[in-house]
Amino acid sequence: MLAMDQGVVEDWLSEYKTLHESAVSTYAASLKDKGVLVPALYKVIRENYSDFLEPVCHQLFEFYRSGEPQLQRFTLQFLPELLWSLLSASAARDPHTSGCIEALLLGIYNLEIVDKDGQSKILSFTVPSLSKPSVYHEPSAIGSIALTEGALANHGLSRVVYSGPHLQRETFTAQNRFDVLTFLLLCYNAALSYMTATSLQSICQLSSRVCICGYPRQQIRRYKGISTRLTVTSEFLVQLITGIHYALCNGEVELGSKALDDVLYRAQLELFPEALLVGNAIKSSLHGAALKSNNKEGARSIQVEITPTSSRISRNAVTSLSIRGHRWKRHDAVDLGSPDELMDISEVDEGVWPGGMGPDMTPPTITISNSVTTLNLGAKAMKKCRLGGRTNKDKEAGPLTMGRAASECAELSVKRLTLTSSQSVPKAGALTSLTRTASAVFSRSFEQVVSSNAPPTSNHTASEVGRYSCSLQEDGLGYFSPAVNHKQQRSPSISVHLGSDL
Amino acid sequence: MTARKSGSRLETEIERCRSESQWDKIPELVRQLSAKLIANDDLGELLLGECKLQTYLKENPLKQGASPRGPRPKLVEVRKHLTAALDRGNLKADYLQEVSLLMAKLCYVEGEYRDALGHYSRVNLDDLQLGGAPVYRLSMIAEAYATKGLCLEKVPAASPSLSNKNTGSPSSNRSTTDRDQEIINCYEKSGDIALLYLQEAEKALSAGIQNRSPKPGPTAQDLELGYFLETGLQRAHVIHFKNGNLTQGVGRFREILRAVENRTTQSLRMTIARQLAEILLRGMCEQSYWSPLEDPPTVSPLDDPTRQGHTRTKNYSLSRRPRVYSGENLFCPQENTEEALLLLLISESMANRDAVLSRIPEHNNDRIISLQSASVVYDLLTIALGRRGQYEMLSECLERAMKFAFEEFHLWYQLALSLMAAGKSARAVKVLKECIRLKPDDPTIPLLAVKLCIGPLHWLDEGECFGKIVIDMGEKAAEFRAKGFLAIGLVYSLKATDASLRSTQEEYQRKALGAFQRAQSLSPTDHLAAFYLALQLAVSRQIPEALGYVRQALQLQGDDVHSLHLLALLLSAQKHYHDALNIIEMALSEYPENFNLLYTKVKLESMCRGPEEALLTCKHMLQIWKSFYNLTNPSDSGRGSSLLDRALADRRQLNAMTLPDFSDPDTGGLLDANTLGFSSMFSVCSVHATSIAASRVEQALSEVASSLQSSAPKHGPMHPWMTLAQIWLHAAEVYTGMSKPAEASACTQEASNLFPTSHNVLYMRGQIAELRGNIDEAKRWYEEALSINPTHVKTMQRLGLILHQLQRYSLSEKVLRDAVQVNSTAHDVWNSLGEVLQAQGNAAAATECFLTALELEASSPILPFTIIPRAL
Questions:
Q1: Keywords, A to Z (chain A) (predicted)?
Q2: Same domain (yes/no): B744, B850
Q3: What's B803-866 look like in SS3?
Q4: Of A141, A301, A304, the CB nearest to B261
């Protein structure tokens, strides 16, 4: 360590102690201008045996404890370097050197896991849901929300805890080490925008080293430090990836992509799905984006261009949207001449746009009533009922307003429809026949919408449906009795009877 | 058009055509118009000029980034029309303004930027009325602002005639900033008015559809944004980002997105939503975030520091602004991940709608486009949700991506990984199979599948297949080859444990040993290979060899908990109980909350230090359990009602579950009066029957909640309850060892409350009955235990003994022989078998049994080696 650096660090150590409380914030702001200080502190942390290490760690902790955001960020910028010191020392089984670093890290951890009142802090966030209006959208315009179990569970906005509550820790043990470090990285990542380039480089280096030490790749990277393998956890890697991602997009292209590769390499060897998932996604999403390296002009690789606003997909391609508006032929009719007819998909979704929806239109309601039914089809039966329910509703509102609102379920049944349609009416047989029946009902009743001269639904179908206690078909059909007025904005009510075993 | 349209009707029709850009109808309408009144001629000129200019632009669209191409012969006519309209000056003020705007646009198209600006300064764009204006005029004004911005960008700042009002200012730097600001203002105003225009146009359109009789042909063709509107909508934020002005760029994005969408803006919104999400995920963090309804911070680390201080707030206002989403209880994100997620969900729904389903070759390009735009969104969703640990939701999202996924490896793989991370193992394996098909050379994929097969699924046959895939790759698998051998070794090792026939058992053990040896030789620095080799050797009772490898493993990874545990068990097999206890205590200093270590500690303590110590450890375990799983989440952390459902479902499962085998029955330790307050143990962790139902739901809730976000070692939600029951059973065992049936029975009752049908609980009840001298009752309990788990060796051994006491020798022999078949290393079973045979007078066979028992006892660990988990 050079004498000059030593002087700088000594000054820094003494200056803060003499500081008056009121002067803290101006002092914090002035730290940025001390160009030589930060590199000198990095040196202190890197040289494990430096005499300064202990007072420096102490002072960094004092900074953190002050609560002044700028001082806290000053401490945080050294976090990657501190983590590396700790991990390499513990891998080298060299306990006495890392003592004060351990104390500093545990100190920060214990400060961060509690809120102002000393209660365990719980970090949570709201999972947005498209079914609730937001500043950016209206649920009616989104339409297609799949009626999956998950979607139903998520119907409202739900708050989800992503970290916490955490236990206070007095020492590092092999068991808690990565819990603590993962949480510390979470704090670091929350302040990423304030971190200097050096700190971002440092987190990339940390990631690379943690992941490759002791593995064959270490030779490729020519890193000569410790060569023992460090244990990692998947969550820890995910947090590292978050930091790398930021670095990668904010000037540190080379180090960042190397680090990302190394983390992915390790995640593969460890078979960590979480880290692989996020890492792959980052790699793939950056694949097209040309990343600029760290030049003065565009330190950030966030650049946008003017993009054409018209849809780039040709109008006659069959898309999930267009297929919903498709007028299906009567499938029980034998006159399905050529198979080409199935390909003959006309776009009928003009005017489907929900903007045309009158404000007075009542949304369709789905009543789910619990009643004891004879049939014991369980959850599957209910699903089918839902299928039927959706298709019915879809049909009713279809060409008018709700074309987009068709659910994935409806799509599913629509696909099924094409598959089964070319065959003859299926034999009754357990569940498949239910779907087929439902499809048949669907197609028949849809015909009624399309052409009002269609024959009334045969009793045969109705009774078959009845067997599965899906009263909705009959209800639904009521709406499609011969003359269907497209302008009519009635809300279809669909009641689904659930078996008692659900 | 047979009937002449009345004047006002005609005007309306013209207005509609202009609004809907139906330029081909204009000439005919102009003819009708001129026929009515000569004074209309000027208006006719205007209309013809406009219609020709627009038609020209439609046929020769301007390209982004390319400059206009200078004068064109076709445009001469346009200029003629417009000049005519302008020169005569008969037009109403409104129309005159329109002529000027068109003139300026024409000038721009011809590359005459200064002239264009001259026209704009004459009209003064800011004075144009937005309220009450016909729809087409909104579009004109929006285009005019955009064109003005474009011209200002083209014309060098220095030229005095063009800069804004305070031209005289000599300080060029200042005027450049003002100018930059003026350019941005032009674009932003243009964008705002364009959004307003599109909203109004659509309103008019849908009103028109309803009023007019249905007419043939496509009615609602999409409004197309021309070059100018596109520029107006997007150029402002492009400039912001180019200048490193993230705060303002983000602000502009949000303004556009908050405007109520319409058909034309959809694709733009999708792009912008995705871009904003990218920025939120790549360039922002929690601390630098501000919510869409808040004012941006004055100083932000997001902005280029060299330009700091130029942050300005919006300094213009419009008399009419586009409608924004409004209403009560609008969700407004409060955090960057929330906003990113919301935006991505919106983009996703749009991208999903555009999924091209047909696979005919003509639509190849369309399919690629729709796939690309969707996979970008899904990647970003993965980043956002992965950061927050929401793998369950992620797997649902990625499942929706499957309509794009035909033969697309990336999407399949991501789905598989998300299912795995969400704990949906069975489905994950199915999807991984498809991934293997798509990318047969990647050894990671089958390894991931093996991991699931030997972990949560226990599908050993499938696991074997996947393991073989890796091994068959040979050298190609490189570093993963060793992992492949490790995986298949684990499969065999687990199969050996499951096997009920001794021969199969030995066969699998041999195979496992071979595989571990291969793994170890291929990757000598992998501690896992050395460790599993040691474990397998230990299971086959090759204690000294096992000790060698476990030492090797510990050299490679000094603080590996399983290696330490194995070392302790190996030492206990050599009857070095004190050394073993020391190792366990050392391991516990690093892993204080590891219950497996603690169970072994209880055993060792009752052996070396007496049952009081062991009871203290039991109490300690209960305390740990409580602090571990009792961290209550005050917030409603879960996903609403489904969480409750899940917890209730768990409880139903609870009764049906059985505890895994956890310990050997025989404790040599004999009793002293216990000094421990029995009740103190209950006070630590009382889960009495009365309160248990309520607290259990509560506990399960928090457990499920925490398992949702942490994906660490994935245990089912049952895990904590099984742990608790095991702790109670260990305590019961210590009490039986001390001949304290009452206390033991109370402990067993606690376990029984959790798992009433566990064979371990029934077995313990039998032991207690035996202790009380109730042979018949004990026999009944043992029989019940065996009816639940017919291969429970410890129960079989006790039952054999009782039958022996009841002098039903041949039945006893049968039970004990079965037990030996199941586990040939259980020395006490051999011993009991010997006794029965002796009683039957079969001395020779009895001797052999005693010798085997003796030999096995010499290498028997305090707890079976198989309590150490085997996982990849």
A1: Cell membrane, Cytoplasm, Membrane
A2: no
A3: HHHCCCHHHHHHHHHHHHHHCCCCHHHHHHHHHHHHHCCCHHHHHHHHHHHHHHHCCCCCCCHH
A4: A141
Give contacts of B389 with chain A, Cβ < 8 Å. 162, 235, 238, 274
- A138 and B341 within 8 Å at the Cβ level: the answer is no
Q: What is the ipTM of this complex?
A: 0.85
Give the C-alpha separation, B792 to B831, whole Å. Answer: 17
Looking at the structure, tell me whether residues B564 and B600 fall in a common domain: no
Check residue B172 and give its pLDDT.
Answer: 53
DSSP letter at A22 equals: G
Chain A residues 149-178 with CB within 8 Å of chain B: 149-163, 165, 167, 173-175
Question: Lowest-pLDDT range, A104-108, A424-428, B22-26?
Answer: A424-428
- pLDDT value, residue A482: 39
- What one-character DSSP code corresponds to residue A299? S
- Count of structural domains, chain B: 4
Q: Do A215 and B479 touch (CB under 8 A)?
A: yes
Tell me, yes or no, whether B686 and B803 share the same domain: no
Segments forming the whole domain that contains residue B83: 7-211+223-259
**What is the C-alpha separation between B769 and B742, in angstroms, rounded?**
10
If asked whether residues B745 and B827 sit together in one domain, one would say: no
The two structure tokens encoding residue A356:
């045309």
Same domain, B742 and B797: no
CATH number at residue B535: 1.25.40.10
Helix/strand/coil (H/E/C) assignment for every residue in A74-113 = HHHCCHHHHHHHHHHHHHCCCHHHHHHHHHHHHHHHHHHC
Q: What is the pLDDT of residues A391-401, one digit of tens each?
A: 444 444 434 33
Domain identity same for B565 and B612: no
Going from the C-alpha of A82 to that of each of A46, A99, A221, B204, B590, the distances in angstroms are 8, 12, 22, 64, 21
Report pLDDT digits (tens) over B368-425. Answer: 888 888 999 999 999 999 999 999 999 999 998 888 888 899 999 999 999 999 999 9
Kindly tell me if the per-residue pLDDT of B124 is higher than 60. Answer: yes
**Contact in structure between B578 and B841 (CB atoms under 8 Å):** no
Residue-wise pLDDT tens digits, A126-155:
888 888 889 999 887 776 555 555 566 656
Q: Are residues B605 and B579 in the same domain?
A: no
Mean pLDDT estimate for chain B? 82
Q: Which of A293-302, A330-339, A444-453, B625-634 has the lowest mean pLDDT?
A: A444-453
Contact between A134 and B444 using a beta-carbon 8 Å cutoff = no
- On whether the CB atoms of residues B248 and B311 are closer than 8 A, the answer is yes
Give chain B positions within 8 Å (CB) of A309. 225, 230, 233, 264-265, 267-268, 271
